[in-house]
């Protein structure tokens, strides 16, 4: 696959996954980003949970809008110090609670666009919050990220 220059400044990419919904992927993604930021790292979160984009609400930026620049979409920056860069479909919806009812090809195209067209700048870590399950979105995400430095994955589970 083609390599985007927008991820060249990202040192490490971490996927946050689970086999089912409601186990805390978005919470783990958010807390991990905050902990890494607290340690002085430059951090971004890519929320590819297209049906339930909760990261903007968790970081209290759900009312923000995404803007374009020469190299693509500018992520939303969180906090007065603009400490965490964030991209989510939640910023592209008319109302943040709107449901996204799309078929696979459209979802996969948006994921690929999120990977290639967001101007992240220099980041130490990019955390990718994925949807629940083992769907096409996961395959699309991994395929789109294959040319980059994927550090690993965090699998969020529950004890039942």
Automatic annotation (TrEMBL):
Any one GO biological process: iron-sulfur cluster assembly
The organism of origin for this protein: Mionectes macconnelli (McConnell's flycatcher)
Alphabetic keyword roster: 4Fe-4S, ATP-binding, Iron, Iron-sulfur, Metal-binding, Nucleotide-binding
Protein name per the record: NUBP2 factor
Alphabetical list of InterPro entries matching this protein: Mrp-like_CS, Mrp/NBP35_ATP-bd, P-loop_NTPase, YlxH/NBP35
Cited Pfam families: ParA
One Gene Ontology cellular component: cytosol
Molecular function GO terms recorded: 4 iron, 4 sulfur cluster binding; ATP binding; ATP-dependent FeS chaperone activity; metal ion binding
CDD domains, alphabetized: Mrp_NBP35
